[in-house]
Amino acid sequence: RVYASGLAYNDMTVNGLPASASVLDPGFTDYSRTVLYTTHDVTALLRPGENVIASELGSGHYDDTTRTWDWGWDKAQWRATPRLRLDLRITYTDGSEQVVSSDGSWKVTVSGPTRYDSYYLGETYDARREIAGWNQPGFDDSAWAPARVVSEPTGVPRAQTHEPIRIVSTRPPGARSEPAPGVFVYDVGQNLTGWAEIRVDAPAGTTIEVFYSEKVGSDGRASTVGNDLVFGQLQTDYYVAKGAGGERWAPRFSYKGFQYVQLSGPAG
Q1: Could you give the C-alpha distances from 158 to 3, 10, 106, 152, 161, in angstroms and in order?
Q2: Which of 51, 56, 129, 268 is deepest in the core (most CB within 10 A)?
């Protein structure tokens, strides 16, 4: 079993495969009082020989730098850069145990493809910066830096016991309109919580904007006009193509409330 708390979000893999079907783990709390950790049985993901457990961390509430909200999360005393605490507890058939823990011998990099993430505002993903095989056996991490051991929040670690967040259904993109050249709006037919997965065929460096809204304006574009609680980039993802063709991407560190998804980019 792997016990892990990634603050704020922990997208964890074992030998390149997801450690669980859950998303946006662990749940957010007042980190000065409670720090949640998840528990997953990863027996089926382990193999004889070398195994690799890896994580990409998201900012979530723990590293919330947004100053446009009325609730003052950006002023919380526990705010800090994302971090991870992990124990992989292995029980062998002879009854012996081994614990693999996160410590200063782990390796880290900040040069990956996720360049920005905010659970409300959205994400920026540059596929040109993807690192092939980084979370799989055989990867050479000699150029990566040793992990820095940092202090934990003052909250008490507690097992996450609420029902996990999971993808429970997938919908087609729905009716498409083109309110302006190269701007496409999809009506998925229901106001829901989630995100879009996009497939991209575009030259390297092309930026695609994915904007989510609950309504459209008089010009047919997705719109948040009239919502006095949010400002700026709200619910907008940016994907930068690597030019490989057939690229697929979906955000992992944010969620959106929407009925309309608007796609636009230099190449339409």
Answers
A1: 11, 16, 24, 14, 9
A2: 56
Q: Which two three-digit tokens encode residue 14?
A: 């074992």
pTM over 0.70: yes
Provide CB contacts within 8 A for 95, sequence distance 6+. Answer: none
Give the separation between CA 83 and CA 10, rounded to whole angstroms.
9
Is the pLDDT reported for residue 156 higher than 90?
A: yes
Query: CA 254 to CA 115: how far, in whole Å?
Result: 13
Cross-strand pairs, 219:
none
- 122: its two tokens: 């959205």
| Residue with the two structure tokens 């390149």 | 16
CA–CA separation, 30 vs 125, rounded Å?
28
Residue 36: CB atoms within 10 Å: 19
pLDDT digits (tens, 9 = 90+) for 98-107: 999 999 999 9
1, containing H or E segment: none
Provide the 8-state DSSP code for 74.
G
Task: Quote the tokens at residue 133.
Answer: 């095989």
| Residue 70: per-residue pLDDT | 61
Numbers of helices and strands, H then E, in the chain: 0, 21
Reported as a pLDDT band with limits 50, 70 and 90, residue 5 is very high
pLDDT at 61: 86
Q: Which pair of structure tokens corresponds to residue 32? A: 């000065």
Q: What is the pLDDT of residues 116-138, one digit of tens each?
A: 999 888 999 999 999 999 999 99
Cα distances (angstroms) measured from residue 94 to each of 43, 97, 98: 16, 9, 12
